[in-house]
């Protein structure tokens, strides 16, 4: 477990990828990020690029669509982690092709990092958009590439910053919109913790060809529980508007893309409880907080404390 | 122009597609909608399905991924209009293949219905997501399929219902968030008018192998102008929060998918003014309100009146 590896992060300047690249470097792995020229010259990315460099990450100029650059980067490493965003899920067939060609990669983690589609029953358009992840998983297995598939559940900071209230800049102080009855349990994992667990799993023989879930027990909470926790902290009762499931489904139907995508994700997570309504199959599904009890993950409670 | 045609709408039970299918039927065209079994049995879709039937639209059970059903439906018609949502833009290669195979289609309108990517300079992830539209346009041209490409600009009802303030159910009465300085001009077209223009263009020789823009003069407005119009109507001044471009770009970078997609679209439309910062090239670009002055389009002013 203490073995040091060579890890390539694709999408390593993105929302989650930057945490993964930095967690990799912090763990002592030789870390590479495939980065586009356009990212390097993008002022909005300069602080991310700077931070990667400060962490000792090696930036390799290239692109998922530039096969040669992808093969060159892949040849350098034992582990490839893709953290590409939702618009590039399908493009990961190009990473699979590069890994097949070089033949040296001992572990590939594709970009999943959400809830498990195999256990979910999503409506459109999330069914199509996230369904691509399932196709990528199938292609990886079909090619015989060693893998770990990662379901990290909800990005805790992204959601708790606004309680999924769009156009808000902070958690609600007056009123809150709750989808469904608010009782479905979801799972929240802080982005940096997702990165730490992912890097641990990337070099762990126990996660080889397994599906990794991040279900830290203290962070399995319903929306109502989170709101109650928050109300206690701010000493105030929020005005709650519940949007029943049938109404939400109607709004999804009546909203153009990509608003319907946002809402159909919320439907899966907060109304259907798709993160928590199944049991893990120990033969091929493993859980991060059990595998890595040494990780002191950040709790929802601690995250909310910082917002009070 | 009075000639009646046979029109197939794919995605015809979707957000925009239902208006297109109904506009086609109202215009007297024999109208077909390719519809999935799952859509037919979806309670959230029942009112849409009912409405299509009431308009005399013929529902053909099938799917874009079921080649046989697609070929069968395509064989029946002169015009194919795709109104598939953003998660299926790339899948339109399957429609192209079916049209090639049958050889009888005189006009194909792929699913664009936004702003023109060829004139825009979008940031990610909208660059990738909507960039697929450009690839589909290229593939249609390469295959020699007769086409009209439609840039309808912003869905007026969808945007004006909440002034693009997410998690709102109505236009703002107290405060409003404005991206950029609010001065970039955007173009708003009511969904039903988009459908009427599209159906007119679908059988119009003047739009053959052309790009159609919908730029109704009364609906070319900046966000500030819309807010001012609204303030006058409700007799109240809103508290305005401006999000400068560099801050918005930073928020996009720091938001996970698909929130970053929503925001990158807003950046294009409301900050960069990508709908209005170019001139049409008369050799291959035509404008709907000029071609069809007989259409009494709904103005932004009229839409806002209904919300007062």
TrEMBL record, chains A, B:
Q: Which sequence ranges are marked TM in the entry?
A: none
Q: Which GO terms describe its molecular function?
A: oxidoreductase activity
- List the InterPro entries: NAD(P)-bd_dom_sf, NmrA-like, NmrA-type/Isoflavone_red_sf, PCBER-like
Which keywords, in A-to-Z order, does the entry hold?
A: NADP, Oxidoreductase
The protein in question is named NmrA-like domain-containing protein
Q: What is the lineage of its organism?
A: Eukaryota, Viridiplantae, Streptophyta, Embryophyta, Tracheophyta
Q: Where is the NmrA-like domain?
A: 3-304
Domain of life, source organism: Eukaryota
């Amino acid at each position: 477990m203490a073995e040091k590896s060579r890890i390539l992060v694709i999408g390593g300047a993105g929302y989650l990828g930057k945490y993964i690249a930095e967690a990799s470097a912090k763990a002592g792995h030789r870390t590479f990020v495939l980065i586009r020229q356009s990212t390097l010259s993008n002022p909005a990315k300069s602080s991310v690029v700077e931070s990667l460099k400060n962490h000792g990450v090696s930036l390799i100029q290239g692109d998922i669509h530039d096969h040669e650059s992808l093969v060159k980067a892949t040849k350098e490493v034992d582990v490839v982690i893709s953290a590409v965003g939702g618009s590039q899920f399908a493009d990961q067939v190009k990473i699979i092709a590069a890994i097949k060609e070089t033949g040296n990669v001992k572990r590939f983690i594709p970009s999943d990092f959400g809830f498990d589609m195999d256990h979910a029953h999503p409506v459109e358009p999330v069914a199509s958009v996230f369904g691509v992840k399932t196709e990528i998983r199938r292609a990886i297995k079909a090619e015989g590439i060693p893998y770990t598939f990662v379901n990290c559940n909800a990005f805790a900071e992204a959601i708790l910053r606004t309680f999924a209230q769009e156009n808000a800049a902070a958690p609600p102080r007056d009123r809150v919109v709750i989808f469904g009855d608010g009782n479905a349990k979801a799972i929240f994992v802080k982005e940096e913790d997702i990165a730490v667990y992912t890097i641990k799993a990337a070099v762990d023989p126990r996660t080889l060809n397994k599906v990794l879930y991040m279900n830290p027990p203290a962070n399995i909470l319903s929306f109502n529980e989170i709101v109650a926790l928050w109300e206690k902290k701010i000493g105030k009762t929020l005005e709650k508007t519940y949007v029943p499931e049938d109404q939400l489904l109607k709004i999804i139907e009546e909203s153009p893309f990509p608003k319907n995508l946002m809402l159909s994700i919320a439907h899966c997570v907060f109304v259907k409880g798709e993160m928590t309504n199944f049991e893990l199959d120990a033969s091929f599904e493993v859980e991060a907080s059990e595998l890595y009890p040494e990780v002191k993950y950040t709790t929802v409670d601690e995250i909310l404390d910082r917002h009070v």
